[in-house]
Amino acid sequence: MFENPSSKFWHFRRGLGVVLLGAVAVAVFGLVVMSLWNWLMPAILGLKAISYWQAMGLLVLSRILLGGFHRHHHPGFRHRKHVFERWEKMTPEERERFRQGFRRDRSGLGRPQGD
Which three-class secondary structure state does DSSP give residue 31? Predict the structure, then answer.
C-alpha cells in the first residue's frame, strides 16, 4: 500500500484536535468541581470556598489517592490492523471456520464449562 502525503498532516491535525479537546475538557471539569464545591461545601459543612486552581489541585489529589496514574491499555488501531492483516491472509475455508467458531463462542455452546 502507498502512503498518502496528506495523511501525515491529517494525523497531526487530528492529534492536535484531540489534545485541545482534552485540555478544554479538563478545564471545564475543574470549573465544574470548583462550582459544585463552592455551592455545596460551605452550606453543608461550613468549609471555605476554593479557587479554580485549588479545584484543579483537588482533582489531581483525588486521582492520585483514588485512581492512580496507571495507563489503561486498549487494543485500538494497532490491534484492528493486525486482525485485518491476518484476515486478509486467510483462505476462504479458514475464514468460514473462523466465522463458525466465533458464532459458537458467542452463543456459549462451544465453550467447555470451567474455562
Answer: helix
> Do 43 and 78 reside in the same domain of the chain?
no
- Domain holding 112, by residue range, is 72-115
Residues 21 and 32 placed together within one structural domain of the fold: yes
Q: What cell does 60 get?
A: 489531581
What's the DSSP call for residue 113? T
Task: Tell me the pLDDT band of 29, cut-offs 50, 70 and 90.
Answer: very high
DSSP for residue 111: S
Structural contact between residues 20 and 46, judged by C-beta atoms closer than 8 angstroms: no
Q: What is the mean pLDDT of the chain?
A: 82
| Closest by CA position to 59, among listed 35, 25, 18, 29 | 29
Contacts for 100-106: CB closer than 8 Å, 24+ residues apart: none
Residues 52, 31 contacting (CB under 8 angstroms)? yes
